[in-house]
Write a structure and sequence with these properties.
The chain is mostly helical and 110 residues long. The protein is built from four helices and three strands. The chain has a three-stranded antiparallel β-sheet, covered by helices on one side. The protein starts with a helix and ends in a 6-residue tail after the last strand.
């Protein structure tokens, strides 16, 4: 339970910063959408593809790969906040259209 609260706090504190940065530079880039969709045109190496994030978060080889997996998760959540309705994970609702970009589901708290 402790680790899930830590992950929730990490997302709550970091995803909105990524959303703010993406919004300030004009939105999600084509390369970021490709990366998220894991297309062949993705500019990133396969080890960074969201589809393999479980290898980094659940069974990381070392601390570097675990931290890299957390970065992938935060970036993916920030990108997905730009789709209509945003995205929910661990009781958090991320949406680039809401104040502070995050709400705790069920509480209206931001």
């Amino acid at each position: 339970m402790e680790s899930s609260n830590q992950l929730k706090n990490l997302l709550h504190n970091n995803v909105p910063r990524f959303i703010e940065h993406i919004k300030a530079r004009g939105g999600v880039t084509t390369d970021e959408w490709r990366w998220l969709h894991c297309t062949d045109e993705s500019p990133y190496y396969p080890e960074y593809i969201l589809a393999r994030a479980d290898e980094y978060l659940l069974y990381p080889k070392d601390d570097y790969h675990f931290l890299d997996g957390l970065f992938v998760l935060v970036l993916a959540m920030a990108i997905m906040s730009f789709v209509p309705g945003g995205v929910r994970l661990f009781g958090l609702h991320f949406d680039m259209r809401i104040e502070n970009f995050v709400e705790v589901d069920g509480s209206g708290e931001t």
